[in-house]
Amino acid sequence: MKMPENKRNIPSVLTCLDGTEVTDWEIWMTKRRPELLELFQKEEYGRLPDVSDMELHIRVADSRQSEEILQGRAVRKTVEVLAVRKGIHFSFCFVVFIPTGAIKPVPAFVTVCNRGIKDSDPARHFLSPFYPVETIISRGYACAAFRTQEVSPDYEEGFTTGFSRLFPEYVTDRPDDAWGAITAWSWAASRIMDYFETEPLIDERRVALVGHSRGGKTALWGAAQDERFAMAVSSCAGNSGDALSRGAKGEKIKDILTRFPYWFCKNYQKYIDKEETLPFDQHMLLGLIAPRLIYTSSKTFDKWADPEGQFESLVQADPVYRLFGVEGLETSKKPLPEQPLYQGRIGHHYKTGNHDMDEYDWNCYLNYADIHL
User: Which residues form the 4-O-methyl-glucuronoyl methylesterase-like domain (predicted)?
Assistant: First the structure.
């Protein structure tokens, strides 16, 4: 297999830690993929604690359809996830919108909302382009969103609240590979998938996990771990998301860990100013999702996210898709703004604008899903 030009001196996605070359999808699935998943758990995002003694209860707390809800075009369900461990309770809610009149189960998008209520308002008093439910429903898809703050706070508080409160023993004795907030958020996304598997109106085989910025990192990591997600969508995920760490032209590991150390495990701090010593890079995160669908987007004025590094990561992940006999990225040439790449199982667009996710982005995601999902 011809490998793409290695412009940033990154480690090969198809070379195992012991030097074994991956020449087919079976070697990838049995050897390379498991060791890469372990590397990302141990060295970057952190691993979940043992949850074998956790009880999970998922229930529909409210279900209604009326003219006040998207003019009667959708059923709105509020779902509660309750986790109990050793007498400690933690819960969060998410809201699902499902098109009315669906003849068969519909595909769905799950949005990781790292913003406030205005960008995920279940009453739809605030019509946000960040989460355009009306557009998604009109295109025949169901959708759900959860707010990251309800699962794990987006500030450094010592992992004592939200999901982490279930594990008080980790507060004083926290391993260097223990979970960060991104891993907690991805755990929550998988609980929505648990619900979808019981919801007869949703086709759980056709679900996309979507996020912007830190939410985009979560969408990629969540889909890498949970193979039930058919598609991962990341908007402006940047450093420690879809952009290569080596040769970064914007944010670097030192920058992100100075501001947001709690997103990651402690081990990640070893690579501050030492990106070249990473045993992996972010193209391998994308490779973990193969042969499932990936769609990423970047913005012309979002230099901090390193759009060149974001696209190069896609190029370097493409060989994994080829192992499965499918087309990954349709071209290794970075597209001009407003010229989306829809053909391969890795889609992408580059849009004129700033660090954001808007209705143009969503229409591209939906267009891509129409073709592939």
Answer: 91-325
* Residues annotated catalytic, as ranges: 213, 355
Q: How far apart are CA 86 and CA 37, in angstroms?
A: 29
List helix spans (H) across 129-202. 133-138, 148-151, 169-172, 181-196
Q: Per residue in 320-354, pLDDT tens?
A: 999 999 999 999 999 999 999 999 999 999 999 99
Give the up-direction half-sphere exposure of residue 180: CA atoms within 13 A in the CB hemisphere.
30
CA–CA gap between residue 146 and residue 118 (Å, rounded)? 13
E strand segments, the chain: 55-64, 74-85, 88-99, 106-113, 142-147, 202-212, 231-235, 293-299, 346-351
Q: Are 218 and 118 in contact (CB under 8 A)?
A: no
Torsion region of 174: left, alpha or beta (phi above 0 gives left; psi -120 to 50 gives alpha): beta
Q: Give the C-alpha separation, 340 to 347, whole Å.
A: 8
- 288-303 residue pLDDT tens: 999 999 999 999 999 9
The DSSP line for 259-280 is: H-GGGS-GGGGGGTT-GGG-S-
Q: Which two tokens stand for residue 56?
A: 């999970």
CA dihedral 317, 10, 32, 1 (to 10 degrees): 60
pLDDT band at 1 (very low <50, low <70, confident <90, very high): low
CA 106 to chain centre: 21
What is the model's pTM?
0.97
